[in-house]
Amino acid sequence: MFEFLVAPFLEFAFMQRALFGALLLSLSACPVGVFLMLRRMSLTGDAMSHAILPGAAAGFLLYGLEIVPMTVGGLIAGALVALAAGTVARLTVQKEDASVAAFYLVSLSIGVVMVSLRGSSVDLMHVLFGTVLALNDAALWLIVLVTAVTLLTLALFWRALVAECLDPLFLRSVSRLGGVVHFLFLGLVVLNLVAGFQALGTLLSVGLMILPAAAARFWVNDVAAMCIVAIGIGIAASLGGLLLSYHASLPSGPAIILSAGGVYLVSLLVGPRGVLRLLLPQFRHRTA
Amino acid sequence: MPAISANKKPLNNEAVISLRDLTAGYNRHAAVHHLNGEVRRGALMAIVGPNGSGKSTLIKSIVGVLKPMSGTCHVARDVTMAYLPQQSELDRSFPARVKDLVQLGLWQRRGLLSRYRNEDRQRITEALCAVGLEEFGDRPIDTLSGGQLQRALFARVLVQDADLILLDEPFNAVDEKTIRDLVALLRRWQAEGRTVVVVVHDLDLVRASFPEALVLARRPIAWGPTAQVVTAENMTRARQFQEAWNDDAHWCEPAPALQEA
């Protein structure tokens, strides 16, 4: 048992780094995912993960497989798409789902064109799916920084974030923070996607955001509790995924997301707000 | 009924809301057209008029979530406002308890970062009692009926403890007893020196409970003491206005007042 569960992390430095990175990402991305889900923007996360591709690709084309330029590029591309889509949604009749779709599709196609100009399909695979087992110092520092910024922002703006989700028009009637919080939140989404893409790839980094949050919804009915449960699930999925990847020689990113998917399925079935509870025959009821 | 707070500033004739030639609307179509007038401190005023006559637009302009197309809508300085919209953007599936919803009303007092105090919790409990929801504090909001939710929103307005209270059709889908309770609350607010402006459709209710009324049909039909204003004749005039946007409507010429200036 010890051999199976602990030894890989004790023996190999790359496993320790991977674990450290994945744990931090869980701490940071999972609560962001909870708000993303509660704002019905789960698919916006997915769209944004596509939107950062051209930025990452530009960094890759100019500097090769270096974390800093790829990250900065991804941040710029993500921020541009988020700002453009958010602004269009706030100023025109178009809703945010449509404007995000429009801008991310353009961004994604630019990214694919850029990679195909120079890179091989192996490079593209790397950008798309990442390698948590090859996290270098720069990548880990980036994840530490993003985690710190995310947790601090969430703590400072918690009340406004909850208000903006629960009753946005009320927040607008008492404060000018509504718009600020919306863009700040989109910023956090982009930041966490970028932090995750070296480890999990641009396509899968959103998985660690959404799956634990979606799973947590079946267990608790309180925002703070959901964040904590989601972080727990994220940590469990990171551990499970890395072990799965190590023992079964699977790519690490998909293994982590698959583990999270497993937790989601279990939660969907047996959680107190899950399917089985709904399907159980109800023989008794209360009078009021 | 527990007192939520000491009386507000003493009654006087000061205008809390001043409308100067206010025109507001959407996509260059006026929904409120060249409205002038004042709401004085301590007024309990009903806005009545047919569907689409600009009642919600007027309220939104006062709150400041809609910018006027021309003219001004001025709210006196240092006046705190509480607004209950007709169509709340409240997400009822959000995992929040009734307490959490009412707690939002503390925003003006505690803002983003100040810690909630015991007196705040006390205030929330008192507000829930005042609207008859004392047992509901820990209930998830998605388990409330429409009328219960409306009462919870009134509790939030109570917690806001504002000088100026703007309610947009607050009695829709609310049963008679609840309406009676809520109207008693409006009267109490007025007695405390607050200014209360409410969009209402039930004219009997307006005549019975609101001393002042504005009959609106895009332009003001009449504004003043309810008995003189909410008359069969005025309501007939209000009903005759053209509800729909007219794409061929004339562009409005500058108002005479503006031409002189």
UniProtKB/TrEMBL annotation, chain A:
Residues spanning the signal sequence: none
Compartments (UniProt record): Cell membrane; Membrane
Keywords carried by this UniProt record: Membrane, Transmembrane, Transmembrane helix, Transport
InterPro entries noted in UniProt: ABC_BtuC-like, ABC_TroCD
Keyword Transcription regulation recorded: no
Main subcellular location: membrane
Chain ranges passing through the membrane: 18-38, 50-68, 74-93, 100-119, 139-162, 174-194, 200-220, 227-249, 255-276
Superkingdom in the source lineage: Bacteria
Mode of membrane association: Multi-pass membrane protein
Family: Belongs to the ABC-3 integral membrane protein family.
Protein name: Zinc ABC transporter permease AztB
Gene source species: Paracoccus benzoatiresistens
From TrEMBL, chain B:
Family of the protein in this entry: Belongs to the ABC transporter superfamily.
Single annotated GO MF: ATP binding
Stored SUPFAM superfamilies: P-loop containing nucleoside triphosphate hydrolases
Keyword NAD assigned: no
Keywords: ATP-binding, Ion transport, Nucleotide-binding, Transport, Zinc, Zinc transport
Pfam name, any one: ABC_tran
InterPro entries per the UniProt record, alphabetical: AAA+_ATPase, ABC_transporter-like_ATP-bd, ABC_transporter-like_CS, AztA-like, Metal_Ion_Import_ABC, P-loop_NTPase
Limits of the ABC transporter domain: 17-243
Source lineage: Bacteria, Pseudomonadati, Pseudomonadota, Alphaproteobacteria, Rhodobacterales
Residues spanning the membrane: none
Name of the protein described by the UniProt record: Zinc ABC transporter ATP-binding protein AztA
